[in-house]
Specification:
This protein is α+β, with helices and mostly antiparallel strands. It is 23% helix and 22% strand. The protein contains 16 helices and 29 strands. The protein has a ten-stranded mixed β-sheet with strand order 7-6-5-4-8-1-9-10-2-11. Strands 19-29-20-25-26-27 form a six-stranded antiparallel β-sheet, with no helix packed on it. The protein has a five-stranded antiparallel β-sheet with strand order 24-23-22-21-28, with no helix packed on it. Strand 16 and strand 17 form a beta hairpin. The protein is globular. It starts with 33 loop residues before the first strand and ends with a helix. The N terminus is likely disordered.
Amino acid sequence: MSADKPFGGTIGNTVAGSKPWWPPTPQPPADAPNILVVLFDDVGFSDFGCYGSPIRTPTIDRLAAEGLRYSGFHTTAMCSTTRAALLTGRNHHSVGVGCLANFDSGYPGYRGKIAREAGTLAEMLKAHAYRNYMIGKWHVTPLTESGATGPFDGWPLGRGFDRFYGFLDAETDQYAPELVSDNTHIDPPGTYTDGYHLTSDLIDQAIRFIADHTADRPDLPWLTWVALGACHAPHQAPADIIRGYDAIFANGWDVERELRLARQKALGIVPPETRMPARNDGVKAWGEHSADEKRVFTRLQSAFAGMLDHADRHLARLIAFLEKAGIRDNTLILVLSDNGASQEGGPLGFVNAMGPYNFRPEPVSEKLRRLDDIGGPDTHTNFPRGWAMASNTPLRRYKQNTHGGGIRDPFVISWPKRIASKGELRHQFVHACDLTPTLLDLVGIGAPQQIAGVAQMPIEGESFARSIADASAPSKPSPQYFEMFGHRGLWHRGWKAVSYHPPGTPFENDKWELFHLEQDFSEVDDLAAREPDRLAQMVKMWWSEAEQHNVLPLDDRFAQRFAENAARFQGFRHRFVFHAGMGHVPTDVAPDVRSRSYTIEAHVEIGDANAEGVLIAHGDATSGYSLYVKDGHLVHDLNIGGGHEIVSSDRKVPAGAHRLGVHVERLVRQTPPAKGSRTGVSAYTLLIDGEPAGSLQTQLGFHNLISWSGLDIGRDRGSPVSHYDAPFEFTGRLLRVTVVMHDDQKLDGNGIGGAEMARQ
C-alpha cells in the first residue's frame, strides 16, 4: 500500500480504466430558480384582498402587484385530491387519491395514497440537485398509516422531501397541533398561554429550513412547500385581530357579496357583465336571522378573516427573509388555495363543532354566551354556509361541489427575475394538475421516465408557462374533468358541463347544466335546453375521461365508506397495551372506543399518597376523555364538545401497586339515531384493583368521533381534556395502560361521515 494512496486507490478511483463506483452528482439546470409554494386551505375565490375581499392581505396583494393573478385557476374541490394533483402533475383519480386520504375503497382511483408510478414534484426535482422542504399540511397518505411505525413511504420524506415539519391530517388545533418532525411525532414547542400559534411556527420552520440551506449549499436551488392550516376549521387567531373585523362584516353576507363583486369588476378579476347568482340552497337572507344570530355569525366570520389576516402577517416575515438573504429575485413564489370555502359549518356555524357531532346540541344561546371564546384554544370554530357563499363570490356552491364555488380559486405568481408584467391578470383556464408540468417547464427539465426503478405514468397536466409571459396565450386544448362524491363536471374550450349529485340518489337522475364560461363567469345562464347536442357531447366526453382516469365506479357512499374503513383497520383488534415511555398516538391509530363497551386499566405504583396526574388522555379541550388521579382520587372525564361528565372515586387511592381503571358499558343498544338525536345510555364505572369505586350514567358519548387530537399515556401533552393544567404528568410510577374493547360496536356511518367531512 503506497503512502500517497493509503487505501490502495480503491476508494474514489478503482482499478485504472474502470469507472468510479458512486453515481454522478446531480447538477442543477443553469440559473434554476428557488420555488416557494404557499398553499392556503379552504380559502374562497374572493378572500384575498387582491381578489375583492376586505380582509387585510397586504403581503399577498404585494406579491400580486409584483407578479400575476389568475382568474381561471381550478382545483379538485377537496384538499387531499388537490394536493395529489398539484404534487404529481396528474389527475387525482389517476394517482389513487380520487377522494380522501382517510379511507381506501379498494378501487385503483380511491386508495387514499399517491401511487409510486406518480412521482411527486419533489422526487422529480431531487434528480436535478434541488433540496426539498415540506412545511405544514400533508394529507395525502392514509391516516391509518400515520402512527409510530408508518409505513413511512407515503409521508413527505418518502415522497422526495428532504425535511418535513407539519401535520399529516386534514386539520389540527392551531394552539396544540398534532406535529411531526421528519418521521417522528413531537410536542408543539409552545402553548397558547405563551403565545404559540401554528402559523407562526410553520413560518419559523420555513425560514429555518431555507436559512440552513443557504448557509450550507447556497449553490443549489430549493423547493419549499408551505401548506398552512389557515383557513381550515378550527378558525383560530389572536382575539384582537378577530374582533377588529366585527364592524366590517356586521352588514351580513348579502351585502358583502355585492361589495365583493363590485370590487372584482373594478379590479378586472371578473368581466363587467358578471351577474350574482341566487343564494345557495339552504342559505337564508341575512335579514331573516335574529339579532343574536347575526352577532354570532358576524364573530364567526371575523374568526375566519382573522385567521387569514394573521397568516398574511406571518407570510410577510418569510418574504422579508428572502429579501434580506438576497434570494428573493430568483425565487418563484406561488400563492393559492386548495378548494373553495367550506360548507361544513352548516346553516348556523359552530363555536365548538365537536359537541354537535356527538349529538350534544349547541343552541344559539350557548354560542352567544361563548362569543368572546370564538377563535380561542377551547373552540373548534367554523362559520355558517352563508359566509362560505360570500367567500366564493361570485360563484355557486362550495368545497366538495364541482360548480365554481368548489373548484375555482385564487392563484398568485411572482418571480421578479423572470416576470416582467407586473400586476397583470391572466384569464386562461388552469388546473391543479397543470402546476407541476409548468414548474418543470420553467426550471428547464422534463419529467423522468423512472423514479427509484419504478416506471412512471405520463404527466397528464399541461404547462401554462406560455401564459405567464403572454396574456393572449390560449388555454389548454384538452378537456378537464371534475368529480367529487358523485358531483361531476367537464371544462372544454371555454364551456362547462356540470351536475350536482344529491347523495343517495341514482346517478342517472342527476341534472346536467351547461355554461359558456367565457360569457358567463358565475354559471347563472344554463344553456342545456338551448344547446342539447353540445351538452350531450360534453357528457359523453366526461364518461370517456372518467374511464381513462380511474374515476369509475362512481361512489357517493359517505356513510358506508367511513364505517367500512374504520372496521377494516381496527375491526379485528380488541386489545391495546401502552407501555410507559411511548410517544404520542395519532387519533386514527388509537383505540376506537366509539359506540361500544370497553375497559381501560392502568398499572401503577404509588409510593406517595399525594401522587397525581394523567394515566391516559385522548383528545383536547374540545372533546375527548381522560383518566387521572387528582387530590388522591381516581377521576374520569368524558368531554363532549366542552361539556364535562366527570366521575370521581368514592375513596382515595392508597399508596402501593394498583390497577386503576374505568369500565364503560353500553346499556342500550339500538338502531342509529334520527339526525340530531342521541342514542343509548352508557355507564362509566371507576375501578380500583378491579373493584367499583364510583359510577355515573349518561346519554352523552363518543357516537361519531372521539377527537381529532391524539392519545398519550402518563400525560396530557397539549390542550387539556379536563380541569387541570397540561401536561399534568403522572408523578407516581406508571407501568402500562391496557385498553380492552368489547365486540358490541355499532357505528352510525351517516353521523361519522358528517363529522369526518368537517375534518377535511
